[in-house]
């Protein structure tokens, strides 16, 4: 039950209690008034009867007395049979029973056998008419009062609807509130408190976004340092291992000729062959570690976002997968900030090459560019690893205050009851990174249905910030440098 209904019900109950109390007082007063009227009528009838004392009450005299128009009184002979009470014409039986006043009779011993009967029915009917009129007036006043209360309470509680809408905006992350309390002091203080809360939440969110951006930037810088250490230390170690293994292999290649010239034993030749085999194994292992290090470096710090603008890096990323998986239909759509400037909102970017200069993605700060790239990269890997899609669509939209990313495939979709947040480190890492930047990440069925079979859609919304200064340390294309060093 709403507050408005409760207030109106309370007012209605109060009016009913007042009406019941007033009715009880009126009934009690009416009972006393009817009894007093009956006593007065009997006293009058007694006086008239005594005037007729000593005379036989003839029928003409009784008819004359009853024709005097005396209310409530009837004069009957003493020896007459009792007559039934007159039927009520105006007051209902239950009201007469509520008044509880019965007809009263007085027998005059010296009145020549005359009986005087005082009947309350006319008086009760008169009281009923008065109370009916009063009840109708009270009902009309009560209805008018309820209508006025309905309008007044509705007007007084109208700001609460605005407060509710404001709280919904707060839950949605929109803190630009304008709350009008309608001149009610209590609600005005409440609205001021909600507005202050909104300002505090907005400041806290801005601070959280700045902190999250600094955290992500620090993580990227740490990844950069780790990648540099892997490149410098591991690259040099692999190079030394390959040089030593190559030298051993060359030495063992000359060992059989020397052994044949010097007349060495067959065991020496066999040992030289085993050493050569081990040297080739070391070279193969070093090559495998080299490939593994390239993958680690690519995960720690993708080279493309450092070497190319984000739009071109995304085009190269999707194009690389298109070359690896030609059986899959690939679509990349990058939309500018203002589609009215000449680019249709539904226009996709041709992977074979097109002018993406109108796309506003390249104006994002470094942390946001790397996050967008990683989101698309991880989503494509998951789409190909966990599904067998025939079509993959990548859509990136750069708006004034945010960037929206959506990667959709037509695979089997997510199984029922599957929690994407517990799928692995890749998705959990994406969620943590997006939340640190103040954005939101959603993974679900591409068709918006609860059942599987509609493909999978990974969508993210990231707020845009002012471009942050680039780190002081230069970023090198680690994979290519390591390859040249090795």
TrEMBL record:
Q: Where is the Histidine kinase domain?
A: 372-466
This protein's source sits in the domain of life called Bacteria
Q: Which InterPro entries match?
A: HAMP_dom, HATPase_C_sf, HATPase_dom, His_kinase_dom, Sensor_HK_TwoCompSys, Sig_transdc_His_kin-like_C, Sig_transdc_His_kin_sub3_dim/P
The annotated region (Disordered) lies at 448-486
Under SUPFAM superfamilies, the record lists: ATPase domain of HSP90 chaperone/DNA topoisomerase II/histidine kinase
Keywords linked to the UniProt accession: 4Fe-4S, Cytoplasm, Iron, Iron-sulfur, Kinase, Membrane, Metal-binding, Phosphoprotein, Transferase, Transmembrane, Transmembrane helix, Two-component regulatory system
Its function, per the record, reads: Member of the two-component regulatory system NreB/NreC involved in the control of dissimilatory nitrate/nitrite reduction in response to oxygen. NreB functions as a direct oxygen sensor histidine kinase which is autophosphorylated, in the absence of oxygen, probably at the conserved histidine residue, and transfers its phosphate group probably to a conserved aspartate residue of NreC. NreB/NreC activates the expression of the nitrate (narGHJI) and nitrite (nir) reductase operons, as well as the putative nitrate transporter gene narT.
What is the protein named? Oxygen sensor histidine kinase NreB
Question: Where does this protein come from, organism-wise?
Answer: Azospirillum thiophilum
